[in-house]
Design goal:
Rossmann fold; Quinone Oxidoreductase, Chain A, domain 1; alpha/beta; seven-stranded mixed beta sheet; 345 residues; 11 helices; six-stranded parallel beta sheet
């Protein structure tokens, strides 16, 4: 086994402490990655709150770094290559979804970067809040030159989560896109929609984000508590990407969807209630999405490199991980924390 260091949850609470971690010896198709930057995702908070201590928990599933070793069968990467890894590190490879390049929907469920089960030895996967990660080369991506590695890290979760529905729903020139919620997911949805050429609007409860909305390239801001503006936006948007991370009523956002348009609900993944009439009038559709397959992830990274799209990040030394989690819980970030793992040695 290989050893590294990282930040692991205790048996209760969300506090993490530095500890020694074990990584597997490289299999023929593995690479070892020195983790340089790892994003802090709302999913990490959810995992920590749900943690019972029955299995080790090291969060982190959007990171960039450098290849430090390669398995005997690896040809895609060489030592020293800059790479990125997202929230899926393996899948069955044989089901219809995997064959279609949608490993994120693997019928056997994909192996997650942390709190997942390794398909070969049954161990619990430990995430990117650590100095080294060992991963199948097929689930690592070349980091395009020109992308800042810290600001690119959140593309591997937040970015791909909004990229897939934007592409699947045809966001581009001539389409009207609204992004509900302007947080870690939402600000990247805005940047990507704008770069795709869509007429882009933000729907937010925060009028104080008007300057950010303009800076990100959106064409309009609708304050969701402004009843007049929300009524005026009825049937306006071909695509609404709902990135709001807490339980909420989707009806006001469905009302803004145009004839035959779609609301893609990607923020809060709990239960929702929808009146059939809210879909019936206008033949509106309600959908969702989660993460992305390997072809889409690679295409997103190339697109982001061409269009200079990265996350707005606040980089903190990893020793301040608990500060980052506390502030994230209070929504005190614009728009993504990224941990610098260099302080782990």
């Amino acid at each position: 086994m290989r050893t590294t260091v990282g930040w692991q949850a205790g048996r209760s609470g969300i506090a993490l402490s530095r500890t020694t971690l074990e990584r597997r010896d490289l299999r023929p198709d593995d690479i070892a990655v020195r983790v340089d930057y790892c994003g802090v995702c709302h999913s990490d908070l959810h995992a920590l709150h749900a943690h019972t201590g029955d299995a080790p928990l090291v969060p982190g599933h959007e990171f960039t770094g450098e290849v430090t070793a390669i398995g005997s069968a690896v040809t895609r990467f060489a030592i020293g290559d800059a790479v990125a890894v997202g929230n899926i590190v393996d899948s069955c490879g044989a089901c219809a979804m995997c064959r279609a390049g949608q490993e994120n929907f693997c019928h056997e469920f994909p192996t997650l970067t942390y709190a997942g089960t390794d398909r070969h030895d049954g161990t619990t996967t430990l995430g990117g809040y650590s100095r080294e990660y060992v991963v199948r080369d097929a689930f690592a991506y070349p980091l395009p030159a020109g992308l800042d590695p810290a600001a690119a890290a959140p593309l591997l979760c937040a970015g791909i989560t909004v990229w897939e529905p934007l592409r699947a729903l045809g966001a581009g020139p001539g389409s009207r896109v609204a992004v509900a919620g302007l947080g870690g997911l939402g600000h990247l949805a805005v940047k990507l929609a704008v770069a795709l050429g869509a007429d882009t609007t933000v729907i937010s409860r925060s009028p104080g984000k008007a300057a950010d909305v303009a800076r990100l390239g959106a064409h309009d801001l609708i304050v969701s508590t402004d009843e007049r503006r929300m009524v005026a936006a009825r049937d306006r948007f071909d695509v609404v990407i709902d990135t709001i991370a807490v339980p909420h009523d989707v009806a006001p956002y469905l009302a803004t969807v145009a004839l035959d348009g779609t609301l893609s609900h990607v923020g809060h993944l709990g239960s929702i209630t929808v009146e059939a009439a809210d879909l019936l009038v206008g033949r509106k559709k309600l959908g969702s999405a989660g993460s992305g397959g390997r072809p889409a992830t690679a295409a997103m990274l190339e697109f982001c490199a061409r269009h200079d799209v990265t996350a707005d990040v606040e980089v903190l030394p990893s020793a301040r991980v608990n500060d980052a989690l506390d502030r994230l819980q209070r929504n005190d970030v614009r728009y993504r924390f990224v941990l610098d793992l260099a302080d782990l040695g």
